Amino acid sequence: MAPNLKETDFIHLQAYKEVQEPLKPKAEKREYTILYHVVLLLAYLHIGALYGVYLGFTSAKWATVVFNIFVYIAGSYGVSAGVHRLWSHRAYKAKMPLQIMLMLMQSLTGQTTIFNWARDHRLHHKYCDTDADPHSSARGVFFSHIGWLLVKRHPECLQRGKEVDVSDLMQNPVVMFQKKYYSILSPLMVFILPTLIPMYFWNESLSNAFHVHLVMVMTGANVTFCVNSIAHAFGDKPYDKNMSATKSFPLSFFSSGGHHNYHHAFPFDYRSSEFANDYITFATDFINFFARIGWAYDLKYATPDMIANRASRTGDGTYHHHDE
User: Fold this and answer.
1) Measured distance CA(10)–CA(298) in Å, rounded
2) Inter-axis angle of helices 96-107 and 173-180, nearest 10
3) 91 to each of 26, 52, 109, 275, how far by Cα in Å?
4) 25 vs 227, higher pLDDT
5) I want to staple 258 with a disulfide (CB 3.0 to 4.6 A). Which of 176, 192, 219, 251 is the partner?
């Protein structure tokens, strides 16, 4: 139980069955149509980020590095607490000020619009490891990590993407505002402002400001990618051994997605794990804080009995009860 939150502040779900519609075959052999412009863009961004690491240790000012660490943290909250738990899974509700804050924080990451991110994530859960899953782990670690961005989508994924329920997103003014103005918000929030701020306030060079920021952008992207790849390939399955999602202990220190087996077993849980915090990102504590001040409410989570029963029924035997 989160500190200083009353029992009545939570919605206890006594029963939950994830709606998943597996398609067959899980991963047909197919020829990929490579999107060369995306390949070149991501190659440039990764090379630029590596150069940014070098500049961070050699010529960038300490204020630039610290500033970008804070930008990274803000972006991670925008993804984990925002587009993932709030908008993709509706694991809690947020008042307008928090929604606007999370939208702007998510816009820092460059990880597409909230609308597209949430739609794809719902596809991933509903059709996990089938041809309708945008980053199906059945096609291998590289594909599920970044390869899915480098090729045209499978026709089944395109079709199911048109059918998945996104009515709540279309009715959300914050989500639709970002979608409408993303062509302006994205370059402004991802590249322009994070580059100009160090240049204006502490006279950082353009190259240092831009490339050091790329380190944070690409680190955040690859942490998200690892949840799609590493957390579907390596680790234990304490809650459900019948799914590809795993509990990846090393990844859990960098992302709440490390507890991915739990998340796929209980996708409605705002915590994404049964643990009191999420190690480095602390996204659960972030939501708890805003629940205390009334900006977040209707927090959903799985009860200890639900968790223990699920682990006993479908787990791989590695589950150990966690007392919060």
Assistant:
1) 6
2) 30
3) 28, 36, 21, 16
4) 227
5) 251
